[in-house]
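Readers of this paper often ask what the protein records in our data store actually look like. Below, we set out a record of this kind in full and without editing:
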Amino acid sequence: MTSFTRVLGTSFSLCLLVISCSHNSITDSVISFASLARVLQLPTVFAATVAPDVTTYHYNLARNGLNPYETILTPANVNSTDFGKIGSHGTDGHVDAEPLFLANLTVAGKLHNVLYVATEHGSVYALDADTLAQLWRVSVIPAGETTSDDHGCPQISPAIGITSTPVIDRRHGPHGTIFIVAMSKDVNNEYHQRLHALDVTTGVEMAGSPTEVTASYPGTGDNSQDGRVVFNPSQYAERAALTLYNGNIYTAWTSHCDAFEYTAWVIAYNETTLKQTQILNLTPNGRKGSVWMSGGGIAVSDGYLYLPLSNGTFDTTLDNNGFPSHGDYGNGIVKLNPLSVPGGRLTVADYFNTYNTVSESDLDLDLGSGGVITLPPMTDVNGASRNLIVAAGKDQNIFLADRTNLGKFNPSTVAPDHNVYQKITGQLAGRNYSTPAYFYGVLYYGASGDSLKAFPFSHAKLPASPSSHSATIFGYPGTTPAVSANGSRNGIVWAVEGTFNSTAILHAYNPADLSHEYYNSTQGPGNRDAVGASNKFITPLVVNGKVYIGTPTGVTVFGLLHH
């Protein structure tokens, strides 16, 4: 049971709204209600918005794609008569990051719901989320510098500025802070990666911001010098969403395509000082293995960080505890302990690698092409509680691992991958470049060249085949779904269709039967609901009765047409 209050109307009377949710429908939520305290202190009279803040990728640190506090959009009104495109706002570059949202924020003396949009041109926009009026806009590219070129790699093109989804801490600083990583190039053709902290009400850089990303780590792998692997900012992009946990901003780095030399970095900074606090290289004595996840974010649960790695070096020789002998975890799922940090280093608490991890890495069939999500506790057939994590990559398998024992590595071909909790084969028709969504006991996957599929859990296990699927086939790179619901009621699964720079189409589905489509953006009269061109890896943001979609030229907004 979750309860919260907001001030409503001119009498400042308190309204108690109680939302009842199954414990299986919400997990590790970081949808912030800190705005309530701020609302109570406002000196003016207003009608407050009853909506959650969305401060991080895919709504929460579980990365499950669920907003369980949506009270406006329902299956009854999401149709081509009542629902459609209601506006758009142009930007100066591609919007590859998921937009974020704060409810009831005072900007320049007036109350707004605020949408934050970041671009590959290095700009951050704060828009009124209801009218799309621009509240402020700043560039985080320093004077005399430009955004980075694409390094000959089409994955992020034609420019690289702000790629990853930022993260917001509404309680940090005088008004709240949004944290952003931007890449740039100076007049000497030197590349820079910087972490910025901006005031959410003005866009002004906070004290100590920005900080330059630099790092080295013991190892003899790619780009090592004198026994230390060195972080070269030109070789990396920050594609994975930023993660805020326990006062630290976690960054995780990928390559430009597979252009050498690069390794697998996770680097953390104190959110107040922006000083580097924690650092780990997960292929320090090898190569590759970067953190890609197609824009997904590090998941956090039970005090641990979880992330998959792309293809890279894995040490098949294990130590006495079953860990890679040289500390190289390429192509695996890793569990990191951020609390035991001797000498400022994160530690690997556990991991899982497939039995054929080396050959899959060689074939670029990495597990880290998609994002991970952590699931709420489930009871198995024997009555035992299970805490699970799910991942899928390019080999078209779905892996379900127990977070208390991920499974480590077993090369046996007698019963391949029997060390992992569950493996589902043959059910994803293409490679996975998405983060799944989870709602009320059902997992939703949208692989490349495949339909959107529903897998309902039973006794903490997935079925051998999906219970339903969409009629639409989602081309490359597939789709990352989101779910809106009011507790366990009025659920809607949202998905964006469209290959890079093709026409995007927004879909809304019945979560209990994906063959039942409530709406898609081609159903409106004429060209009324045209989204525009599509971006890769975009997930829709659904909050406060609206759906926001990033595009190569801005953000498009859907909502009730007569609301």
Residues 35-40 form the longest helix (6 residues). The domain at 99-164+166-293 is CATH 2.40.128.630 (Lipocalin). The helical segments are 35-40, 357-362. The two ends are 29 Å apart (CA to CA).
